[in-house]
Amino acid sequence: MPRSRFFTSVDRYFKKASVYTGLEPGLLDQVRTCNAVIRLRFPVKDDDGSIKVVEAYRAEHSHHRLPTKGGIRFSQHVNLDETIALASLMTYKCALVGVPFGGAKGGVKVNSRKISEGFRERLTRRYTAELIRKNFIGPNIDVPAPDYGTGEKEMSWIADTYQNLRMNESNSYACVTGKPVAMQGIPGRTQATGLGVFYGIRYCLEQEDDMKEYGIEPGIKGKKVIVQGLGNVGFHAASYLQKEGESLIVGIAEYEGGLWNPEGLDVESVSQFRKEHGTLKGYPEAEFIEESEKLLEYPCDILVPAALESQINLENAGRIQAKIIAEAANGPVDEDADEILTKAGKLIIPDLFLNAGGVTVSYFEWLKNRAGVSFDRMISRHEEIMKRELVEQMEILTQQQVPNAQRQRLIHGASEEELVVAALEQTMNYAWRKIREFRIEHNVPDFRTAAFALATKSVAQTYIIQGIFP
Ligand code: NAD
Question: Does the reported pTM lie above 0.90?
């Protein structure tokens, strides 16, 4: 059976990068192969009492480290190839950002926009029960998270179902991440992927040598941005780019159409409008573009595809005007398009790096659940005491009183969210530095190839240490 475009693209990216790893073919094959996969068909009762048979998957791409980790996608386009390709991207992503997990992914073939709340809950709980039965979920086995079409709510149903069926397990909340904070989630997880996208773009554009190579003015301030997909990742990425980065969001594309305003859009107000009206159509301060995919071809500095894979392909790649393509979604640029864009001198910030903020903060959530204590609880008060002492010593030495408001700002101990956000920024910056260094050291033509090669070497290293390969 012919493989899907997305699967083939990821596989070709891997093979292209293999050349720069110096690893033997058997070891490369082990890194590349999907280690385990299940295909499920199970019944779910619909609201009218009828039974719908649902198709679903879970792929654990790499068992080199356990647990495996990866989101669960609800989409009518879900298939086995897509699930495996997404799981493999998770393996490389975790390796790049130093998250000690193998990659996994789950997919449920339903139209997320067309199912009722009740059906959604029954479906999620049944899917979880099936995963438990097949040993494809557990704090030390495989830990799902949100992805396209799922969010906090589904994660809390998964945690609840797991707990009820695994009563005697300790740390059972660690079976899934992306839970609401009130249900042992971690502050900052909801926006983590989008915030990571923002940090990734910002840091990349600060590298003056690279910007010179690509003929781009360094910095994100004032850069014109078009975002595709105003979901979890797209909304938060656009929002941080606008508010913290002072970029200009000139276009927002959704499936029903897009908005265009060369003077800039207010992301929060666009999102609020769409929530209220169920569409972008009618938003007052912009031109409505019926064919939303056309918006990807409009003039801008940075194009941020944050919806689905293969959105930029052989058909439209030649018409992309953006100088930078920041892959917030998984696989938004297929391999044919990648070649065209790279030849045209565009800078592609690859998905396996750029959207790794989600799994990074998921890792923090998993650690917190395993420890049974939040990060700030152990250090916040101690930090406050130390800082207060420092400020008091400064006042004695300078004979000057620090104003009260400033004193409060200086001495307050970090909140859990501040710790998470700081660690996320540090992780993204460090990962990009390593990719850049690898690219320079091995004379790799582009950042995606460098990222794949670096991740492959890191996974392979674990197999070598485990003694599986000499
Ligand atoms: P989401 O369901 O929250 O949002 C996706 C948005 O894209 C929706 O608003 C949807 O209407 C829109 N969309 C769908 N088809 C479109 C089209 N043809 N044109 C324009 N918009 C379209 O999903 P998400 O969690 O934001 O995930 C988006 C992408 O980011 C996916 O590729 C996912 O795998 C990837 N990702 C997500 C996370 C995460 O933490 N949620 C982490 C890493 C990667």
Answer: yes
